[in-house]
Amino acid sequence: MINGNLNLAIQRKGRLSDKSLELLKLCSIEIENYAERLAISAKNFPINVLFLRDDDIPEYVRDGVADLGIVGEDVIAEKKIELNVVEKLGFGNCKLMIAYPENHPIVKLEDLNGKRIATSYKNILKNFLIENNIKASIVELSGSVEIAPSLGVADCICDIVSTGTTLMMNKLKPSFSIFESQAVLIANESTTKDEKKMSIIAELQKRIRSILAAKNSKYLMMNIPKSSLEQIIKVLPALKSPTILNLADPDMLAVHVVIPTDKFWSMIDDLKKYGASGILLLPIENMII
Predict the structure, then answer these.
(1) Rounded to a whole number, what is the distance in angstroms from the first to the last CA of the chain?
(2) Of 229, 234, 237, 233, nearest in space to 264 by CA
(3) What CATH number is given for 2-91+182-214 in this structure?
(4) What is the CATH number of domain 94-181?
(5) If we measure between CA atoms, which residue out of 217, 280, 219, 221 comes closest to residue 255?
(6) Tens of pLDDT along 243-266?
(7) Angle at which helices 195-215 and 17-26 pack, to 10 degrees?
């Protein structure tokens, strides 16, 4: 450990870079003046951040240059490197998909037989073809995979899809999903056997889990008729028992509760049916469960 800190490798530029820095910020880890720098130390946490190409992060972690790394599961799978995944981070979600030109549809897996598939993910694609007994040729490209069919280099492609906008721009349609990925926190094997390092990682994990729990939850506040309390409680998918408060009006109560974010809109009509009013849904920055 340089200066006694753990080394954390994150993507220098790309789809995971900003999200990784945002995660550190939400964890109250101060990283400043990192523009154009390859490494920087946090001001208030025993960690150094290394800014690397995402493809290099698994090797740096495996070789012990970095104790930890934030990288996509797709990169790890493509590199075929065994690493300790210590936390799934809930961002950078994407799919590796087969996509085809609009005028040459691929409806079923067997339609891939005899096709040329352009990709930057040769190993993942190769495993998929073998597992499904598909005889297709792989055209390995380092970038701009989506233009391969229009140039006649390949019949279809296998590439990362997040929103699908790039495919639409190149008149391609997605068909089969062959791999799903998200950002994960990985650790060097020796790091996980070091008591001092693991204590730092445990603190980092605690903060990350607090952020992830808060991200998927909201704080719900509302006023309800006292007579509807039992029905309201049945509607609420509370993480814990709701807080019930008396109001100036003896026939009314205030209810405060933490709920899963994705449940709110499905229950709002029932809440209003039972007389809920003054409904507020507030974000939560951190939540320790």
Answers:
(1) 31
(2) 237
(3) 3.40.190.10
(4) 3.40.190.10
(5) 221
(6) 999 999 999 999 999 998 888 999
(7) 100
